[in-house]
C-alpha cells in the first residue's frame, strides 16, 4: 500500500570556501512535504507559508518536472499526486533550496513509482541532474560530505568526515542571487599553477578538518581561488561580515554555495555575540545560528486507519 509520504528534507551549504562543487554540509532548516495519490487527472500543489508561496501550482513546478524525468528514465507512469509543502529554507540564497526540492522529487518518484531505488542510486541520479554533489549529497545523507561527479562515467563517489564541532552562523541577505548568475561570474579556465595551488589549499583544509584543527581549516577555507574572488562583488556585505567575524574570533567566513548567504564557522563561546553584532550592522539581513544536520532526509509513510 502506498500511504501518504512525508518528507523532511534538510538545507545545505556548499563549497565551504575551497570545496567548490565538491564539499557540502547539511543544515537544520527544512523543506517539509506531504505527498499522496489523488483521484484527479492532474497533480495539485499546496504551498504553505513563506519561501514557497511564489511557486507555481501547475505542471511547471520543479518537483513535478523532476519526478516526470525520473519516470521517463525508468519508463513508468506516476499517479497524479497532491503535494503539500512548506519550507524554512529561503530560495535563491545559497542554502540548497533547489537541491532539497530535487531530492524530494526523486523520493516522491521512487515511492509512488515503486522503483526501489537505493540511497546510492538516488544520489547518483540527484548528482547527475544537479551536475555536482555538494548540495544533494549532504541533503540525502546528512553531515559533511565530500564528493566527486565524474561527467565522463556519470559516477558519483562520496566520502564523509566528522561534522566540525563549531557553531555555524549564517547571514542571509534580503535579495536573491540565482546560481546561474553566480556561475556566470566564474572564469572558464585557470592555469596549471593556480590549479596546483587550489588543490594544495583544499587538501590541507580537509586534513585540518579531519583533525578538528579549526584554526588551520579556517585559514585554508578563506583562501579560495575558484569562486569567491569572482562572486564577492555580487554580495556587498561579504567583506564587512568577514571583518566583523574575525574580530569575534571566527575560524572562517565564506560564501554559502553560490551566495548571497554568508556562512561563518565560529567557536561556540562566540557565536551568540557574533549574531548580535551582525544583526546590529546588517539589519536588512537575517543573521542566526543554524545547527548542522546529521540525519539527512527523513521519510515516513503514514497509512490511513482502516
Ligand atoms: N557549488 C555550487 C556553486 C553550489 O557554488 O555554484 C550551488 O549550486
Counted by DSSP, the helix tally is 10
- Helix and strand pattern: EEEHEHHHEEEHHHHHEEHEE
The poorly predicted ranges are none
- Biggest sheet record: 7 strands, mixed
Overall shape: it is globular
Sheet-strand content, in percent, reads 15-25%
Please give the radius of gyration in angstroms: 20 Å
- SS-derived structural category: alpha+beta
The residue-averaged pLDDT reads 97
The counted number of beta strands is 11
Report how far apart the termini are: 12 Å
Textual characterization of the structure:
This protein is an alpha+beta fold. It has ten helices and eleven strands. Helices cover 34% and strands 25% of the residues. The chain starts with a strand and ends with a strand. α2 (97-112) crosses α3. The longest helix has 19 residues, at 192-210. Residues 14-15, 20-21, 132, 134-135, 179, 182-183, 227, 257-258 line the site of L-homoserine (HSE). Pfam families: GHMP_kinases_C, GHMP_kinases_N. Residues 62-143 form the GHMP kinase N-terminal domain. Its EC number is 2.7.1.39. It catalyses: L-homoserine + ATP = O-phospho-L-homoserine + ADP + H(+).
Amino acid at each position: 500500500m502506498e500511504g501518504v509520504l512525508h518528507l523532511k528534507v534538510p538545507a545545505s551549504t556548499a563549497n565551504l570556501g575551497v570545496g567548490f562543487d565538491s564539499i557540502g554540509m547539511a543544515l537544520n532548516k527544512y523543506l517539509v512535504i506531504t505527498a499522496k495519490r489523488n483521484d484527479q487527472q492532474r497533480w495539485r500543489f499546496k504551498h504553505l507559508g513563506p519561501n514557497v508561496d511564489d511557486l507555481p501550482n501547475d505542471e511547471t513546478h520543479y518537483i513535478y518536472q523532476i519526478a516526470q524525468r525520473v519516470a521517463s528514465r525508468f519508463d513508468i507512469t506516476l499517479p497524479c499526486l497532491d503535494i503539500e509543502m512548506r519550507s524554512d529554507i529561503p530560495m535563491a540564497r545559497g542554502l540548497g533550496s533547489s537541491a532539497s526540492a530535487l531530492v524530494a522529487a526523486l523520493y516522491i518518484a521512487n515511492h509512488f513509482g515503486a522503483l526501489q531505488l537505493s540511497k546510492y542510486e538516488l544520489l547518483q541520479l540527484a548528482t547527475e541532474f544537479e551536475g555536482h554533489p555538494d548540495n544533494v549529497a549532504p541533503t540525502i545523507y546528512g553531515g559533511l560530505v565530500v564528493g566527486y561527479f565524474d561527467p565522463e562515467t556519470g559516477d558519483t563517489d562520496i566520502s564523509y568526515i566528522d561534522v566540525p564541532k563549531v557553531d555555524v552562523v549564517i547571514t542571509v541577505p534580503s535579495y536573491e542571487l540565482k546560481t546561474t548568475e553566480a556561475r556566470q561570474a566564474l572564469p572558464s579556465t585557470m592555469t596549471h599553477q593556480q590549479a596546483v595551488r587550489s588543490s594544495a589549499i583544499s587538501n590541507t583544509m580537509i586534513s585540518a578538518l579531519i583533525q578538528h584543527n579549526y584554526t588551520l581549516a579556517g585559514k585554508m577555507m578563506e583562501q579560495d581561488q575558484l569562486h569567491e574572488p569572482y562572486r564577492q562583488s555580487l554580495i556587498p556585505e561579504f567583506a564587512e561580515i568577514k571583518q566583523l567575524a574575525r574580530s569575534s574570533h571566527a575560524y572562517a567566513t565564506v560564501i554559502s554555495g553560490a551566495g548571497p548567504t554568508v556562512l561563518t564557522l565560529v567557536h561556540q563561546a562566540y557565536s551568540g555575540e557574533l549574531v548580535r553584532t551582525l544583526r546590529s550592522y546588517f539589519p536588512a539581513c537575517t543573521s542566526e545560528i543554524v545547527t548542522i544536520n546529521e540525519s539527512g532526509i527523513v521519510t515516513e509513510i503514514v497509512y490511513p486507519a482502516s
